[in-house]
Design goal:
Rossmann fold, disordered C terminus, single chain, 10-stranded mixed beta sheet, 8-stranded mixed beta sheet, about 20% strand, alpha/beta, 4 domains
């Protein structure tokens, strides 16, 4: 199938390239070309020009993770305002300041989407706006005035935190717009006299870490004002473990016992029960009397159950866990350490192995193909160490994944109308569209029965997989991908026809397409909202999609002639 796929793409690629180049030329002549000077990044402008930039987006995501919730934010040198819009999720009021009227006009037209966002013209030197947090990214290197004088001027108007980024040890002549060169940690040590100072480093591909990279591109620093000690308060747990449950009594003993044996114990446990008729809750009360239990009278589905759970969560991180799993003793510790050390990571996925045969991989991260079909990386393969590298992946299986709570809040959780299945892939797609990154952390492991409770209703599982797959494609694929990939997406839907014949699920297939058609008005509105929030280019999404057809083609051919359960 791979060779056929390559032939299809060779046919499609040439006319698409011609169209793409023509589109770029058009916007160079008639678009906002005055704002495309190489010093600014904006997803709307650069989507037109065919330019992609993840480093700028990663710095704003880093700032979001450092700030948390606060009152007022000042975004110095906000440019065209897309970063100001991102930071608005963290505060009650935000001001974006820039020197150029054209950039500010663009910001007001595209990103001033609520009353708490305002844009003003001004400079670092004449700033008079006081804020709890000041964000000053890729700005100080442009100034002619003394670095310490400029930074101290910002501190006069900063109540709590200052976040700064500058090119790291850049040589003169590298950028014609810059006035300061060879900036390093030593240039900012004076900040230690008035507060707590931490340094972070960004690699050329956008990753940010407290450890230096061999080719560090950007230096980031976080300064925090030291306040007098307050009365001690009971701290909230670092992690909230959320387990949705429906008649899972035969799995909960093992799952909860593995939580009790974790080397990292700073977590709370939230059980969301979807109207179980067995003794599930008795087991929870016996093994975890301190667990919070949310009781639903009926089965509301996975999506609504986990939404109820994370909305109740007090932790900084939310670990979603299926009841048919068993964690290795250091699983939570490894995931927590990774998110602590990698602020650009929004979600982390452990390596999932099969419970019955622990040599076999169940999931090394979710992937989504150009055919619109989701699959599990490495599923069924013997674990020989082929997935032992921390790497960025398309998404994480919500049967065992840790999320920053702020990410779930920003995305408004899982799509409730999915009920169950592919809701995690949908959330991963939406996260990618606004620049969040998911990483695979192989050192963290868990064992998964896989389908422990869903096997009771296989026909409903098939219906939900087909219907939700259609929802997923329609809501999330950018138009620039949806149109050229239409032949591939139709081929993916043909797979549903083959599998329905093979397993006698034709009634469920018809029902899935009927419900998709009936839901189109609602899906159109959802698509508009999702695509309006998109911050990265279609090309960046293209790079995340798997190009290989994810299922054996022989199985489909077999389904044409032999039908069985």
């Amino acid at each position: 199938m791979t060779s056929y796929g390559k032939k299809i793409f060779k046919l499609l690629r040439r006319p698409w390239r011609v169209f793409h180049l023509a589109r770029i030329r058009f916007f160079h002549w008639f678009g906002d070309s005055t704002l495309n000077d190489g010093e600014r990044f904006d997803p709307i402008i650069h989507r037109r020009f065919g330019v992609t930039e993840t480093s700028s987006l990663a710095r704003y995501r880093f700032a979001q993770s450092v700030i948390g919730a606060t009152g007022e934010i000042l975004d110095i040198a906000c440019g065209t305002g897309y970063g100001t819009l991102l930071l608005a999720d963290n505060c009650q009021r935000i001001s974006g300041v820039d020197t150029e009227a054209a950039a500010l006009d663009f910001a007001r037209r595209h990103y001033q989407r609520s009353a708490k966002i305002n844009f003003y013209q001004g400079t670092v030197a004449d700033n008079r706006i006081t804020a709890d947090v000041i964000v000053c990214l890729e700005t100080l290197e442009h100034l002619d005035e003394d670095l310490e004088t400029a930074v101290n001027g910002l501190l006069e108007h900063c109540r709590e935190k200052l976040i700064v980024s500058v090119p790291y040890q850049e040589e003169p002549g590298h950028n014609k717009h810059h006035r300061k060169f060879r900036l390093s940690e030593a240039d900012f040590r004076f900040l230690e006299r008035s507060g707590r100072l931490n340094f972070y480093y960004q690699s050329p591909d956008g990753r940010i870490s407290p450890d230096k990279y061999p080719e560090t591109e950007t230096l980031l620093l976080v300064w925090e004002r030291i306040r007098p000690a307050k009365e001690p308060v009971t701290p909230a747990p670092k992690i909230s473990v959320v387990i949705p449950n429906w008649n899972g009594e035969r799995f909960l003993d093992t799952c909860l016992a593995s939580l009790q044996s974790q080397s990292y114990q700073d977590f709370e446990l939230i059980i969301v029960d979807n109207g179980s008729q067995d003794d599930s809750l008795s087991i929870v009360n016996h093994l975890y009397p301190d667990a919070q239990i949310i009781r639903n009278e009926d089965n509301l589905g996975f999506s609504r159950a986990v939404n109820q759970g994370w909305e109740r969560a007090a932790g900084l991180y939310v670990f979603l866990l299926n009841n048919d799993t068993e964690l290795t003793p250091d699983c939570l510790e490894k995931l927590n350490d990774f998110l602590d050390r990698q602020p650009q990571a929004a979600v982390a996925a452990p390596k999932m192995l099969y419970f019955a045969d622990r040599r076999l991989i169940n999931d090394a991260g979710d992937r989504l193909s150009i055919y619109g079909l989701a699959s599990k990386r490495g599923q069924g393969e013997i674990d020989r160490g082929q997935y032992e590298v921390i790497e960025r992946i398309f998404g994480a299986c919500a049967g065992g994944a840790i999320y920053r709570k702020e990410v779930l809040e920003r995305l408004q959780g899982f799509a409730a109308n999915f009920f169950a299945y592919l809701e995690d892939v949908d959330l991963s797609f939406r996260a990618n569209l606004i620049g969040y990154q998911t990483y695979f952390v192989p050192a963290a492991r868990l064992y998964h029965v896989d389908g422990g409770t869903s096997r009771q209703r296989q026909n409903q599982t098939y219906f939900l997989m087909v219907r939700n797959g259609l929802y997923l494609i329609f809501r999330n694929y950018p138009l620039a991908l949806l149109i050229p990939l239409l032949p591939c997406l139709l081929l993916g839907q043909l797979r549903n026809f083959f599998s329905s014949r093979r397993h006698h699920y034709r009634a469920e297939l018809v029902q899935a397409y009927r419900e998709f058609w009936q839901a189109l008005p609602r899906l159109i509105e959802e698509r508009r909202t999702i695509q309006a929030a998109r911050l990265i280019s279609a090309y960046e999404i293209w790079k995340l999609l798997d190009k290989k057809y994810p299922f054996p083609i022989k199985r489909h051919i077999y389904g044409l002639f032999f039908h069985h359960r």
